[in-house]
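Lab meeting notes turned into a lecture example. A postdoc, R.K., suggested we walk through two folding results consecutively so the class can see how the record format repeats. The first protein's sequence and structure tokens come next.
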Amino acid sequence: VDDAFVSALADQGIETAFPIQALTLPVALSGADVIGQARTGTGKTLAFGLALLQRIDPSGPTPQALVIVPTRELCLQVSNDLTIGAARGLEIVSIYGGVGYDDQLAKLRGGAHIVVGTPGRLLDLKQRGDLDLSNVRELVLDEADEMLDMGFLPDVEQLISACPDDRHTMLFSATMPSEVVRLGRRYMNQPTFMRADQEEHETAPTVAQHFFQVHRMDKPRILARLLQAPERGGCFVFVRTKAMADRLVRDLDELGVTAVAVHGDLRQASREKNLQRFRDGKADVLVATEVAARGLDVDNVSHVVNYDCPDDEKMYLHRIGRTARAGQDGVAVTFAQFNEVERANLIRKALGLADEPIREVFSTSDELTDLFDLPSDTPWDRRGSKSLAPKSDLPVGKVRESDDKRSGTSKTGSSRASSSRAGSSQRAKQSAEDTSDTTSRTRTRSRDRAAPDTSDSAPTTERVRTRERTRTTASDDSTSGTRKASDRDGQSPGRARKRGSTARRQDQGGGGSNRNKGPRTASGNSGRKQQGGRDRQNGGRKDRREVSVDAARGTGQPRHARRVKVEHLP
């Protein structure tokens, strides 16, 4: 390795090579194609980075090296690790989506020797003619299995085809699916396979792994309880969906834990800002989807929590690889709901961890306190009595009112409570009032289902339910006045409304319905038969239209009404 790079690494505190670096560098520096496999967090970036930097000619045409990575965060991290190339005057540009083109194009046109980018943005610039790969001498595929899982292999193949055939190619991955092996055989020249670990599914020996069966509603509190561990560093929390990431951040905030989220729905600037806050220690927890499970190297991460159980052992390995990096200690905790226990057992069996059954714990379990040396007080005790209780689905302040159609009054929440306390005396008084007007209301009850009467001073919002549709109407002062005038004339309110509705329809030239007609005559019967025939031909649209007009005005009689229900809404 060049002495300039050795000095630059020594300034960063790196003086000893990891196994994958010791195996790869002699072969890669000679120009042979390499396929490297090693557990995540064991220095794969420098394994190909040092060989790439040393084989580039600073005075040659640009760009001379292309590094393809699956995610934006990994793109920025690899670019940062390769900055030691400045010791030889090498320029590096990061090409990824979610940000503008101007800065990236300016660096490309300025003569960047090394291009590190994600497949989508790289292919976009190539098709636009802004990225020329004809001078590429070094090609690196980092985290190739992740690009396979994300569906990037077709884009990667197009980028590989645009590079010269006499290039030097290196492929690195934590796992080696058959598709990745076929990709290497197709585009590499007699590659040498390097595997630093003896076992394919070996985890870091310094990681303490725990599996717990938990209840879904208790998971936020259990997580907050685990975060009380003494001498705890940063914590990665992996969830399945983007919505769950945002929700968990809010839940942890209610429990007094500072957390940030990183997922695909956030703008790139927000993702970088949240990640930097976590690196600086301003946030204790980083809640992320699989976007952060690959390649991210953050110092002082002591805990990794699989909030949602991983799909298989490969995903599990990549997730817990965020802790115990570079030989440090770490803790990995996996939550499994009752329907995920079988999947968790398969992961444990594949990794040789299925020695004892998964234990069921709760946020109040003494087992957590003893196992992780937690304090006796809990986060929700510190925050007072406020907890993550389920919210009600009903709007705040909504009270369902009961209808009193016979008395023509509606009860509010307070009056309903007072009438309930009144007891049998109030019901007896109401029964007496009902008996007094039974005779006058019996003839019109089946036809007149109008809304209950309201006071003149305060308009009441009523919901009238008909067979065809539901209309919200307001009984205004004019309706109330008409009803009072009809009561003074000795007529029932239903008959007065019926006559008013008939008169309005006759003035509009539309006629009236059979129920609202005047005295029956021969011509009247004939007219009604013809009108009824037209209504049946029109599918009853005319009647529904008339009912809707009257209902919207707060007057008239719904033809097909079954009941009138009054609801006072906030």
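The second example is placed directly after the first for contrast:
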Amino acid sequence: MLSDEYISEDSLINSIIAILPNEKIHKILDPCCGSGKLINEVSKHFSSEQSIGLDLMPSIIDNASSTYSGIEFLCQDSTQELDFPSDFDLVIGALPIGARCERRNIAPDISTTNTSDLILYKSLMKLKPGGTGIFLAAQNLLFGKTSKNITKNLSDLGINPIGLLYVENPLGKRSGIPGIITIFQRDGIDTSVIGKAPSGSESFLPDLCKMIYNSGPEIEGYRRSIFDNVSSFTSDGEPIFTDNSSNIQSLKIKLNDIGRDIYEFDDVVLNYTHTKPPNYGRLQHCENSIYIPKARGVTEIYQDDLSPRLKNYYQLELDPLIANNVYFMNIMNSNLGKKIFDICATGYTIPQISKSGLKKILFPLPSIEEQEEWADAILDIKEKEGELVTLKKLLQEGNNIDQIKELLDTTKGTDRTLEQLLEHNEDEHLEFKASMWTMYKTENKVATSEIVVNPIKGKNWKCPFLENEVLHTVAAFLNVGGGTLLIGVKDKPLARGKKHAEVFGLENDYNILGTNKDADDYNRAVMEVLKKGFHDNITALDYVKIMTEKYQDMDICRIDVNPLQKVRNGALWVKEKNEHRKLKKSEDFYIRVGSSSQWQSPSSASSYISDNFPPRNSPTNN
């Protein structure tokens, strides 16, 4: 059984302790105790009389027993019937993620192979009247069909979910697996408090606990809902509801009364249809239309701008008295559009909008006159972008300096591409790396300017693991939607807002590369790293452009990546280097999910490739 090893992070333990009930707890059970750290901290918090931790692995139980003497640790399979009376005040635990077992019946007409489902159900049955159960789990635990049936069965037995709190990546940033803390109470109320899990230091914690356990008034950032009305959470932790009226209320809170009305699909959309590439031409273009991709991507207003790499677009004809297509295109391509997309989409790894989900689209709109003013500005900006493309083409041709000067007079000061990138946080199309070889000391997982010298390899050692990170990022961009990697820029904390990311430059990497090495040498070295990692797929390099740009007299290596053609055998597998800088025999597959490049298991990779790299003669590619 997987254990609670991922809850060893103090921040997660603090989040759970912050929402514990404010009452005397005599008896505690942790059915998946792992290292024992969680139940030890909770037991100390309550000074409980008896605390019992269970795990399937004898070695884990032995280690926990030797570490925490005040807890009774027992080797027992918590997916089976637990030989305890139903007299526990508190059941608490970090449920195993991804663990499976043979199919077992939980209740009449309910069976499962999910270990977490079994542990949750078996242990909650050991609560006494008024007892509380608190679990950290993967977000999908309570949103699957079987899990919903289990929760309903528990409610029929008087054990109700009273809290559902979002946790961002409990397994770490690179996992991309969102989590939840769910709170149950025997004989509790039948509504749940929904929101983000607190860190443990917030001033509103007493009021939040009153809201959860004592039907106290709602506080900012949290709301009550019937559990079945929650379908999932967005990537920034906002709840998504099955009832669209609740989504409208949530979006209104997000907009914070900035003067926009919120319209539903049938209020705005006159007609809609969909098509697959490259048959966009079969759609009769209608005035005031937009094209929304089924998967996450760029919303457009012209058929000629539609991307052939995306499998499906929806065409929506908007009511011109209510919505301007240019304005709403800009909304859908903004952060607010991501929220709207999250409301409509299903799926965790590659979310997509189904036909039924399309009807959930919400339209936050000011007056049509204000929309038209914005639309004029948006189109002017797009025109300037087109002029920049022309300028770069003329510059490459190098035979018409007068035309270049003429165009520069109209575009001067607008081409601030690098600065705009440094203002942004990392996302699905942007990644920062402090270095390709230099090891920097990190604090809270963010690089500092202090260099760490390998005591064995010395200061000029080219760290292969950092090279692998560069390879992963470029490969993920190639396999999904393209993007830009900046080397020489440290990870940017979200708290910096629009302030530029901190630039380290490449001087330390130049020194590792050798004496008197410069940007050209470095770019060639980057290309060699990619070439070796791509091994027998050298044509992928045709989709990669490497250049050097300066920022405050410091060099930044910029790698612009276009997505690979989505055809059979077009996906890119890479070979990483081991600690001895030798290529591994095995191949790995990466995709971009949010702001991280994620390794895919063979089965996940196969599924992704099957869906996104079809045969050349398939309808998608004809």
